[in-house]
Amino acid sequence: MPVEAKILFWPAATVAAYLLCRALYRRRPGWQTSPLLTTPVVLILLAVALHASYGDYLLGSHWLMAMVGPLTVAFALPIYDQRAVIRRHWLPLAVGVAVGSLIAVASGYALARALDLAPELRQSLLPRSVTMPFAMNVSGHVGGLPELTAVFVMITGVVGAALGDLLLKLLPLRSSMARGALFGMGAHGAGVAKAREVGAEEGSVAGLVMILAGLANVAVAPALIMTLG
Questions:
Q1: Torsions phi, psi of 114, nearest 5?
Q2: Distance between CA atoms of 15 and 111, rounded to whole angstroms?
Q3: What are phi and psi for residue 115, nearest 5 degrees?
Q4: Tally of structural domains, the chain
Q5: DSSP three-state, residue 131
Q6: What is the separation of C-alpha 132 from the centre of its chain, rounded to a whole number of angstroms?
Q7: Which of these, 134, 140, 227, 228, has the minimum number of CB atoms within 10 Å of its CB?
């Protein structure tokens, strides 16, 4: 495929795959049909069929990765919208985000050590439990591979959203804040989408916790990850 065709083809294929996968999810909602899972699978299969490399994909799709930066800035809007909730529940939110972030990084470190991953892979895995723009930022600062971190983030989100319903049945979480925080902390973007299916308030809390966790990890996680090595 000529270079000019690659530049046009892969961004169009990415957007088309996402739209098709999102339509499938709306018709048959479930973790198996989540666009976070199905879109990469479609693109990988397409790349294998066309014998394309990751470099070929990036030729025209690098601007999609560049949009992560502005997206991070846009997260300030939900923080402003939910300022009343933050003022009213600042202590449980702060404790929950701190403990959840610590458990996420520690569990990732334990998994990386158990699998004896190379340092670069380990640094890519540790920020997996925050939403993608923040995770990729942290990964780049600690010597990881942001693109690989994005894959770990997607896997964490899909698995977390899939397990969320089961945890709600097993845990006595009666308040909408507790249910929303579970999804927002444990499954970030995918969890927010799932929390909105549970209830509007759960979705709002999940989104808020996801963003607060992302901000906390950008501020603290690089030092923690470098300390863990």
A1: -65, -35
A2: 33
A3: -90, -5
A4: 2
A5: coil
A6: 4
A7: 227
Q: Following CA atoms 86, 138, 163, 209 in sequence, which dihedral angle do they give, to the nearest 10 degrees?
A: 0
Domain that holds residue 19: 3-65
User: How many other CB atoms are there within 10 angstroms of residue 23's CB atom?
Assistant: 12
Taking the C-alpha atoms of residue 13 and residue 111, their distance in angstroms, rounded to an integer, is 34
Q: What pLDDT shows up at residue 17?
A: 92
* Rounded Cα–Cα distance for residues 55 and 80 (Å): 39
Q: Please report, as a single letter, which amino acid is at residue 168.
A: L
> Whose CA is closest to 57, among 169, 184, 128, 150?
150
Statement to judge: residues 92 and 144 lie in one domain: yes
Are 202 and 163 in a shared domain? Answer: yes
The three-state secondary structure class of 30 is coil
Q: Say if residue 7 is in the same domain as residue 90.
A: no
Q: 54-66 and 3-27 helices cross at what angle (nearest 10)?
A: 70
Which tokens go with 68? 């992560």
DSSP-H helix ranges across 51-175: 54-66, 68-74, 76-81, 83-88, 90-114, 119-125, 132-141, 146-170
Query: What pLDDT digit, counting tens, does each position of 89-145 carry?
Result: 888 888 888 888 888 878 888 888 888 888 888 888 878 877 777 788 788 777 888
pLDDT tens digits, 174-206: 788 888 888 888 887 778 878 888 887 788 888
Cα separation, 181 vs 159, in Å, equals 16
- Give the amino acid at 228: L
Residues in the chain: 229
**Quick one: tokens of 123?**
């640094």
d(CA 181, CA 119): 31
